[in-house]
Specification:
alpha+beta, Alpha-Beta Plaits, 3 helices, UPF0045_domain
Length: about 100
């Protein structure tokens, strides 16, 4: 499965920024060893249900350690029997575009 998720503290720092808190969540994701990528809006993570959800929970807990309230947005693509889809889906799209 692939999950796309975004975690953010309820309040930012003195400038309104949330990057330091979000960085703690990304450290958890990267330390998991699961295939992942982060863009401006979401982090994508691929693996089995239990391992992916455990990483998401740990990432939420990392942000919760610095904020009394945490927001989580999560979207999942659940397709049993398929792996390597984090990059394969994008490759199929690029082929369809023909660029």
């Amino acid at each position: 499965m692939i999950v796309a998720f975004s975690i953010s503290p309820a309040a930012g720092d003195e400038t309104g920024g949330v990057s330091e808190a979000v960085a703690e969540a990304i450290r958890v994701v990267r330390a998991s060893g699961l295939p992942n990528e982060t863009n401006a809006m979401f982090t994508n993570l691929e693996g089995e249900w239990d391992e992916v959800m455990a990483v998401v929970k740990q990432a939420v807990n990392a942000v919760a350690a610095v904020s009394p309230r945490v927001s989580l947005v999560l979207k999942a693509d659940i397709r049993p029997g398929y792996t390597g889809q984090l990059t394969a889906k994008v490759e199929r799209l690029e082929e369809a575009l023909g660029d």
